[in-house]
Amino acid sequence: MSRELSSPFIDALTGELVYPAFLAKITFASQIVCVWTGPYTLEYDGQSWLGVGDFGRISDVIEGSEVQAEGMTIGLSGIDPNLLSECLDDIQLGAPAVVYFALLDGNGNVIGAPELFSGAVDPPSILPGTDTITIDLALEDRMTQLNRGSNRRYTAADQNIYYPTDSGFNWVERLSDIALNWGQS
Q1: Which pTM value belongs to this model?
Q2: What is the domain count for the chain?
């Protein structure tokens, strides 16, 4: 997939010094968390991005010319084991997550942050350590949704979720209980 890059981003990318950074915005049940790979809090796009430094990890992002769903994994290590249940309760499966690749100027300001990956949160994996744990959060591509069946039903209640005044399905549930005899008088 080709990406549109701004001219300041291209200039920074082709300059003598390149300061790359990854930013991740993940929706949890209690809040939206913005983190990045640096050691300090970064102000970008009207939000404060918490620096996780060496504690954060991002897997390879796979893109190809074939139309297929690819995922990625982001991880956070150094978590206190006492916080494990709280962390797992806050993970919201299917919530949106976005990962950006950005370049920083010499003052630590973001030059550009094109979207690198956008998807939804999948079940995490927990890697226990001696004193801390690591949580790897799987992110799935939006194309994965195309492989799943719809949860919609042919009922009046389901239809009224999106179209409250539509009565087209009011008789569908009653049809399953009606005995119809064809060809008899």
Answers
A1: 0.68
A2: 1
